[in-house]
Amino acid sequence: MLKRGVHITSLLGFQTRQHMFYEKHFQTLGKTFIVTDDGSYGYKGFTTDWFSLVGDYDCYYACGPLPMLHKIKIYRPLNVDTFL
């Protein structure tokens, strides 16, 4: 259950539209952006290409391949809790 006043934005990345899952579940939590490597759904590219869509937040959570996680550590504000 979400606390009142908590806003969640999700940036989900997939290889193709056929590889997508849980989109509707994430949409129930808040604003959701979808990125596919080939552009078959949502934005084209990698999630790190579109990280600016998310904006600045009090906390970041991320899972994925190590190169992506390293980029997230670089992009996020230094004074923000980040869980990788």
Detailed description of the structure:
Helix 1 (23-29) links the parallel strand 1 and strand 2 (30-36). The strands form 2 sheets. The chain has a 3-stranded parallel beta sheet. The protein has a two-stranded parallel sheet with strand order 4-5. It has helices spanning 23-29, 66-75; strands at 8-14, 30-36, 43-44, 59-61, 81-83. It is α/β, with parallel strands linked by helices and 84 residues long. It folds into 2 domains: 16-45, no CATH class; 56-84, no CATH class. The model has no long low-confidence stretch (mean pLDDT 87). It is built from 2 helices and 5 strands, in the order E-H-E-E-E-H-E. It starts with 7 loop residues before the first strand and ends with a strand.
How do the strands and helices of this protein lay out in sequence?
Layout: E1 8-14, H1 23-29, E2 30-36, E3 43-44, E4 59-61, H2 66-75, E5 81-83
Parallel strand pairs: 1-2, 2-3, 4-5
